[in-house]
Amino acid sequence: LEEADGDAAFIAKALGDIARAKGMTQVARDAGLSRESLYKTLSGDRIPGFDTVLKIIKALGLKLHAEAGLIPTPSKK
Fold it and tell me: N or C: which end of the chain has fewer CB within 10 A?
């Protein structure tokens, strides 16, 4: 997901690929979502809420990892 570069739709689609591989019905059940809602959330057409993403990540058996990145400094002219 490093190539996502802040693209929420890319991340949603990637989670969708994993969810389809594991079975959407089971993932939806484990996340507390309807199957239809899960499909819509992971379609990449909408930006899901962070709480929903966390539920899906947990249902997939994944962990969210964050690390500090480099903050570009303004160039001096």
Answer: C
Where does the chain have alpha helices with state H? 8-22, 24-31, 35-41, 50-59
Contacts of 70 (CB under 8 A, 6+ apart): none
- pTM to 2 decimals? 0.75
19 touches 48 (CB < 8 A): no
8-state DSSP, 55: H
Chain centre to alpha carbon of residue 53: 5
Chunk the chain into consecutive blocks of 10 residues (it has 77) and report each block's average pLDDT, rounded to whole numbers.
Answer: 63 92 97 95 84 95 86 75
Residue whose C-alpha is closest to residue 56's, from 70, 71, 72, 39:
39
Which structure tokens are listed for 49? 């809420």
Spatial distance between the Cα atoms of 32 and 26, rounded to a whole number of angstroms? 10
